[in-house]
Specification:
By secondary structure, the chain is mainly alpha-helical. 85% of the residues lie in helices and 0% in strands.
């Protein structure tokens, strides 16, 4: 199998999305959870929550100062987000392992081809050397 054929197979396998619904959701959550959009929007949400409870509702709102409800929400988000991100990372590790196996096979094939070329080159050089020796003997 040539390198172009192998690259075509790799691209074809990468383009086919055979992930389950849960895996697609895990990948989306991991992508969003690790983005600046998430960090900034979460920071804005926290500021709005605190500002609303402390200033608008004069600390007598639905979640007064120690913000127990906010802490509960943050704990729940962390408890759900962590395993989902880990699932996505595990899937990525599987893909990386498969890609490494394919790369290894490509490298083995390339090494075999290089050895064949080296043998051919050695054979040619050997015959050239023998011909040169015969030519030198003929001239003497």
């Amino acid at each position: 199998m040539t390198k172009k054929e192998i690259e075509g197979v790799v691209e074809l396998e990468d383009s086919v999305d055979n992930r389950t619904f849960g895996q697609r959701i895990a990948d989306k959550v991991a992508a969003f959870g690790g983005s600046w959009t998430f960090i900034i929007s979460f920071f804005v949400f926290l500021l709005l929550w605190i500002f609303t409870n402390v200033y608008f509702l004069t600390n007598k709102g639905f979640d007064p100062y120690p913000f127990i409800l906010l802490n509960l929400i943050l704990s729940c988000i962390a408890a759900l987000q962590a395993p989902i991100i880990m699932m996505s990372q595990n899937r990525q590790e599987e893909k990386d392992r498969e890609r490494a196996k394919k790369d290894f096979q490509i490298n083995l094939n390339a090494e075999k081809e290089i050895r064949i070329l080296q043998d051919k080159l050695d054979h040619i050089l050997k015959h050239q050397h023998e011909e040169m020796m015969q030519m030198q003997k003929a001239t003497n």
